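step: validate -> pass
step: tokenize input -> pass
step: predict -> running
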Amino acid sequence: MIEVDAVTVDFGGVRALDGVALHARNGEIIGLVGPNGSGKSTLFDVITGSISPKSGSVIIDGVQACGKPAHRIAAAGVARTHQAPRLFDGMGIVENAIAGALGRTRDGFLQRLVFAPAAGRDRRALEALAKEALKSVGFRAGSGERVDRLSEADRRRLEVARALIAHPKLLLLDEPVAGQTFAEAEKVLGAVAEYARSTGAIAVICDRDLSACARVCSRAIVMHAGRVVADGPVDELRCNPEVLDAYVGVEWRQ
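step: predict -> pass
step: emit ->
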């Protein structure tokens, strides 16, 4: 379970988040939607420890996450993707995916130094998991292709696969299907939904488009100007006056 309460973030004189709350139960898939600049990615930064809030709390499975370094939060079972995918361009595709599972392997420096058999077994197992994760999200590029030559859509799919292989209990996906066809997006969202269903993990899918979340999310949270303006079933949110204000302005009321 994740409980975000009254989180406020200021960047100089700009209030990026204003008393934001987000609650989700194990196994739940929720959308986090809103126009550009509404604070969605900033909220992910707070949850993952990249930004310390001015006030508020983030509790994951009963443990306070605020104030902990990002690597500690990741080690506790939190994985995320980014609006602009962050990959290791000097590494291969499979190696990038495997990087998400470094905390799951016993392949440490001492084992590699003495060529321990366990290190080799872990490596082969991780390669198999990486290829399975890549296939699950519809990754089409060859495993030998250079990462810096991938399309933006493939880079997003690779980052989702890397997050899945980490086997997180909280999965934060920042615009994971942007720029993809309907069929490609269905493949990615289907893999995320299956992961949440089979493991009981929480998945939060961030997107500018409410329709993208409607395919797999049980509910959505809509943000605007750093605030949560609505929280509920997607079909109900489409007609919510505050949601319409956020996307098309108040002129529609005239």
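step: describe -> The radius of gyration is 19 Å.
step: cleanup -> pass
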